[in-house]
Amino acid sequence: MLWLEDVHVRRGGTHALQGIDVEVRRGEIVALIGANGAGKTTTLSTISGLLRPQRGRIHFEIEGRRIDIGRIRAERIVAAGISHCPEGRQIFGNLSVQENLQIGAYLRHDREAVGNDLRSIHALFPILRERANLPGNRLSGGEQMMLAIGRALMSRPKLLLLDEPSLGLAPRLVEQIFDILQRIRGDGMTVLLVEQNAAMALDLADRAYVLETGAIKLSGTGKALAQNADVRRAYLGVA
Amino acid sequence: MARRPNLLAFLAAASLGAVLVFGATATLDDYVLSIIQFVGINVILAVSLNITNGFTGLFSLGHPAFMTIGGYVTAIMSLDPKRKPFLLPDLPEWLAASHLSFLPALVTGGMVATLVAVVVGFPVLRLRGHYLAVATLGLIFIVQGLAINLDGYTRGALGLNGLPELTSLWWVYGWMLLTLYVCWKLKHSSLGRTMLAIRENELAAACLGVRITRTRILSFALGAFFAGVAGGLWAHLVTLITPSSFSFLFAFQLVVMVVLGGTGSITGAALAGALLTIATEALHPVEEAMGLFGASQVLLAVAVLLVLVFRPKGLFGMAEPDLLAWVGKSPGREPTPAGSKRQREV
Amino acid sequence: MTASYILEQIVNGIILGSMYALIAIGFSLIYGIVRLINFAHGDIVTIGSFAMLASAVALKIPFPLAILVVLVTGAATGMMIERIAFRPMRGAPQVTGFIASLAVAIVMENIGIMTLTAQPRSFIVPAYLSKFIAIGPLSVRAIDLAIVVLAVLLMAALALFVRFTRTGMAMRATAENYNVARLMGINIDRMILLAFAIGSALAAAAGLMWGSKYSQISPLMGLIPGLKAFVAAVIGGVGSISGAMLGGYVLGLAEVLLVGLLPPEYSGYRNVFVFAVLIIILLVMPNGLLGHSTEERA
């Protein structure tokens, strides 16, 4: 569904991504793991259009057509069916919880379906219904994460880009989030997940890539990488 | 030592300039002479503003306020003590009776402006970016308002006219040399480097032990001193000073000089100051002929916009163009790469 | 210093405050989205008043329709300024944008002087609005009442738009976090244009009010009110629309009461007072009364 082909990105004078190749197939959960500064967020931002690749192509296949989204503006990439849930949650603190969800569906005009989706999100994250009228900045970290994911889902994306959902969250909440990811994958969603918590990511993912200073060092199935000695040493805290 | 040739080059250029000034005063007519003096005063202003805006990165629009202060103080000091009690009834005895010759009067004007800058600077310089700009703009209006209202001290909106015509090309030239020298020495001193450090990355500078507040106030005050002196020179060139002599429009023109010349380049600021003054003067007759008053301002503003879009570092950026090389065979100075604070980053 | 005199001053303060509020809202709307001070905002006030003069007097358009013309002219001018001065500066340092808008202001003012001369023109209000209406112990000119009513209507319309429409919500989102707003599919360029359009339309409306109140207009008339409205926006918290409204009225009342209640020799200090307030607020309460800090300011 999504192919990155030899993508190079420069930001602020550094060569952040040095020719990476990533593939995400329909219905998969693909994880991108690596240390801080490896380029994981840059990768997601480039896919979603916030950054432009200097070289390389990003192919997105939608309804049988393949488009190169490397040159398209972020707003149109959302319209094409890619939803980016950014690092640090970044919900709109000044908007209410309900409005945050509504703005997730900004591009949609099918009122009734949006209403249904709202209800499904509420079912997935009941706390959001309880807190519907509170301004976003009054939610706790975990609640904001749920809101961010819910907001990203409101656009009915074909591909969900998730940046570090576990960051700053208590382990119990992280488990909850990952369970939810399993559920939405079960419903047919494709997910590209960036995570520092390599253990959980590899456990959840079908396939994974290891990113190190802008280049893909390893790739394989989640299980295979979890067994890989280098990965275990570097990212899983196993000697 | 590398310094020596530069100093020699400077002195050589200064002497050459002196010769030119001598020739000019002897041969040119009054009108052209006064234009040259305006050029010189604008150079003083542009170069001194460069200390505040260019080196330290404080976007100050306050120069006209300091010019007004300096101008009025100089005028009050240089006025005939026999006229003063009549013109300015509220002046205290000792002020009304005193009289200073030009140099002490100018220096006093500059010092009062500096004093105000220091006092105002402590609170105001805590602001940053465009908030500082607007606060210093407010300063212009405050000074103007005070000048208009405290008419017992300043003769209000009428201003002070009939000032002795003390400014001559020699005075302007002398002060210009002093300003250039101070600025130049500053740029190559550790204080100057401190200022540049603050401009580039304040947080890093603070971590390195730079005394931020002190340096900012110092740079603000230094700029104010020369602005005050320039105000005095101006007042005694046109023999008149009013509250609206140095308006916010003038502030814009000064900022233009620094922007066009390149924030941080002394030569750039000086050149821009000179060129702009000449250009504005040259355009005046055209304006009058076509009845389009203000056209020069429009052109200026458009020029600024274009420069901002295409060459945001100004025409020279931080560099000093190699003009002095042929004089003292000094090595050309390398342009320093300068970053800038970006407003938004992805 | 009778009660009715004080009441009269308060009414004047409310009228002045209404105009400051409208202009200040424009500042805050624009600042909220692009984080830049639009120095040319005051000149849009001028354009509004001249547009009114042109349509009501020269083109003989009936007053209510002329108001619409003014709003549209203001919006169009604002969008043009955005295209010319602000869009090319996106991503540049703060002060560059400021200088750019200063440059635009200078261009506008001088073109105004060139084409219209600096002479003030008289602004004639239709006869039916010049009548006096009695409200309690006071008699107020109908036009003054109309000013306040129009201002309140415009502000209410804006408030409803921002709170309850999809586009209004998108604008709020864009003002808060412009990159994430893009991730929602919001077209940022359009949001920015819209902010400029609305803010400028309000400023133009204030221009027409100003002309009506003071009966004369000139190409430079908008400069000082524009700056004072900026002070009002700072008082309320730059970037906050409700703050701008509050700040506008606070400043209007403060300015009028200062001049009205202090001995007459101090009346010339009104501008000094306003700018002194600006500096004090920036230092003491940089977020204003209702604002929230989104960037370093001090």
Structure description:
The complex is a heterotrimer of chains A (239), B (346) and C (298). Chain A is of the alpha/beta class. In chain A, 38% of the residues lie in helices and 28% in strands. Chain A has one domain: Rossmann fold, CATH 3.40.50.300. The longest helix of chain A has 16 residues, at 171-186. The model of chain A has no long low-confidence stretch (mean pLDDT 88). Chain B is mainly alpha-helical. Chain B has helices at residues 3-27, 30-55, 63-78, 84-87, 93-97, 102-124, 129-149, 151-154, 169-187, 190-200, 202-207, 212-238, 248-261, 266-290, 295-310, 325-328, and strands at 160-161, 240-241. Chain C is built from 11 helices and 4 strands. Chain C has helices at 3-34, 41-58, 63-86, 94-116, 142-164, 166-176, 178-183, 188-214, 223-236, 241-261, 270-284; strands at residues 121-122, 132-135, 138-141, 216-217. In chain C, α6 (166-176) packs across α8.
What's the total number of strands of chain C? 4
The CATH C-level class name of chain A: Alpha Beta
Shape of chain C: globular
Report the span from N to C terminus of chain A: 36 Å
Number of strands of chain A: 10
Low-confidence stretches of chain C: none
Major pleated sheet of chain A: 6 strands, mixed
Total of helices of chain A: 10
Strand content of chain A: 25-35%
Terminal Cα span of chain C: 41 Å
Assembly type of the chains comes to heterotrimer
Structural class label of chain C: mainly alpha
Q: Report Rg of chain C.
A: 19 Å
Order of helices and strands of chain C: HHHHEEEHHHHEHHH
Instruction: Report the largest inter-chain contact.
Output: B-C, 46 and 48 residues
CATH architecture group name of chain A: 3-Layer(aba) Sandwich
CATH fold assignment of chain A: Rossmann fold
Strand content of chain C: under 5%
Key structural traits:
heterotrimer; A: 239 residues; alpha/beta; Rossmann fold; 6-stranded mixed β-sheet; 4-stranded antiparallel β-sheet; 10 helices; 10 strands; 38% helix; globular; B: 346 residues; mainly alpha; ABC transporter involved in vitamin B12 uptake, BtuC; two-stranded antiparallel sheet; 16 helices; 2 strands; disordered C terminus
